[in-house]
Amino acid sequence: MNAGRQDDPTAGKARTTVERTSDRELAVTRTVDGPARIVFEAWSRPELFQRWWAPRSCGVSLISFEADIRTGGTYRLLMGHPSSEQPMAFFGRYIEVTPHARLVWTNDEGGKDGPVTTVTFEERDGATCVVVHELYPSKEALDDALASGSTSGWGEQFAQLDDLIVMLDAEV
After folding, report:
1. Residues with pLDDT less than 50, the chain
2. Which residues on neighbouring strands pair with residue 106, listed in sequence order?
3. How far apart are CA 151 and CA 131, in angstroms?
4. Under a CB-based contact definition with an 8 Å cutoff, are residues 137 and 131 in contact?
5. How far apart are CA 17 and CA 6, in angstroms?
6. Is 132 exposed, middle or buried (0-12, 13-18, 19+ CB in 10 A)?
7. Are 147 and 37 in contact (CB under 8 A)?
8. So what's the pLDDT on residue 14?
C-alpha cells in the first residue's frame, strides 16, 4: 500500500518522504545532515525540541514541552493556535528510549488506544537517516489523521530541524 508523497520545497534540499505503509501505519523518512548524537538530542532535549517541532506556517506555537525522556517516563506538549481560545494538550509515555538510536512513545490524548510513535536514528557518513513510524489503532484512526491534516507538516518540521542541527553542529 503505497500512498506516499515527497516534500521538496527547494531543489537540492533534503527530502521528506511520507508513506502510508499499511492500513494502520504511516512512515516518514528524512536524512538530516548531522551526526545521530546531535539529531537525537534535538528530539530528546525539551529546550531544543521546542525550537523546531511546530510547523511555523500552520500558525501553531509550542507553548511548552515537559518531558522525562527515559523508558517509563512521560511527556506533555501544550500547543496554541490563534483560532483556539484553549491550548491543545498532547501527552503520553515513553515505551523505549535508546540514546542516539531510538525513541518510542504513546499518544494518549485521544483515549486509551492512541497511535504509537517510533523514531529511529541511523548515522551514515556523518548524516542521520531519521524514520518516524506511526502505528494507529485502526484504519479509521489513520484515515482521520490524514484527513485532518495533522500529518501534513513533516516536511516543514524536518526543514526546521535541519536549520537547528546546522546551528548545533557549528557549536560543537
Report:
1. 1-12
2. 116
3. 14
4. no
5. 5
6. buried
7. no
8. 66
